[in-house]
Fold:
Amino acid sequence: MKFFKWVLAILLIIIAIIIVRTFMHNPQTSAAIDVVTIDIDEDRASQHLSQAIQFATISPQDPAQRDHAVFEQFIQWAADTYPDVHREMSLQRLDDTLLFKWQGTDATLKPILVTGHYDVVPVIPGTEADWLHPPFSGAIADGVIWGRGALDDKSGVIAMLEASTHLIRDGFKPARSVYLSFGSDEEVGGENGARLVTEYLAAQGVQLAWSLDEGSFVLDDIFPGVDKLLAIINVAEKGTLNLEIVGKSAGGHSSIPPAKTAVGILAEAIVALQNSPLPGGMEGLSLEMLDTVSRHMPFVPKMMFANQWLFSGVLNHSLSQMPVTNAMLRTTTAPTMLSGSVKSNVLPIEAVAVVNFRVHPRDSLDDIVNHVSAAVASDAVEVRVPDASGKPASEVSDWHSDGFATVSTAVQQVYGDLVVAPGLMVAASDSRHYSKVADNAFRFNPFIVNADAMTGFHGTNEKIKVADFTQGIRSYIQIIKNGAQQ
Structure:
């Protein structure tokens, strides 16, 4: 009997600890930030984004297919449409990328860089008829702007130009110099755009206080149970690595196949690899983001995040089942390309799969190669590392820095009561280059995005609401204004 009393007492203590920690897991209090009122000509700005979308500034994977004329047309259109920016700021053109400098009055202050890219990905062949409005029409219908680049990333570029024009016409003079960089080849790596800008700034001896590039958004109804808008400001981005998994077998005629062909061996290896994900979990940046967001969740998930000493295993398993949160926790594994025989009745000697890994900051490229080799390598399976196939994850910028606070304050001034948290960008951006000359590099677009809009990224029916685009302009006004005054 005494034993059961002790067990009951211990259970009551554990329950009490869980409840107390849950009720203590509340949003951190901070000083209230007043919402600003900024008048924007919504129709004019929307028309400008519509016009920008109509330039099919596509970055094809094969540089020989690039239509340089349409990039020239966009550059000329920008000069004609934004004369105040071109008059007030100096312009350095690097290939098709535009680098503006708005000279500050205090040379002792490090400059800042706000950047986006105006090149876009192609429309998937055969899907043109699936678009509700033609992908390069820039149609404005029912309060929505449609077309390739509406989110990625012409909305950012045009919003920055609109914001700069607003500030210039308002008589604003920056104390800190402001650079604006508009990349022309981000979608294929930025080698002739952001890389050249970075080299130019380095040659000029410029070290930026911080840079702000595309990244996450103001998320609406993305995390279940969180009824506030979430501004996830990415402070790092994943790296990338392609590996070739090669299944080997004897060749010959398909009429007399061996027990396992190279294709069958490869298939088993791919299944084994997908069943052996790289280790992950809530720590560092991922933990910081989830800890912040979970404070706004309903009682049960809040209880679990508040008591990770007890529920960490359940949380990690649950988060790993959802693609978005899984990508935040670990290096992801994605078989993307397959090749085998040259003819249907010829047994291949080798069957090859290209597997793309998005590298979490906790992992090195060697860690991934070693993990994959341990999971699948054998006499019949080879793991190959193509030349120059990998880029490590970026460094993690300081989310307690003045630059992060500047961006955070700006979006709160525009959107009011919303949740701000640091995040990890699971894709790649031009910040892989810009961060080399910046003390801190942030990745964030101040536009509202919900789950429906997410499907437009590199997909069909890319779009942005006029009202959300306008709020983004207001946010860039405050970001530039606040950042240039500090």
Residues 239-391 form a domain with the Alpha-Beta Plaits fold (CATH 3.30.70.360).
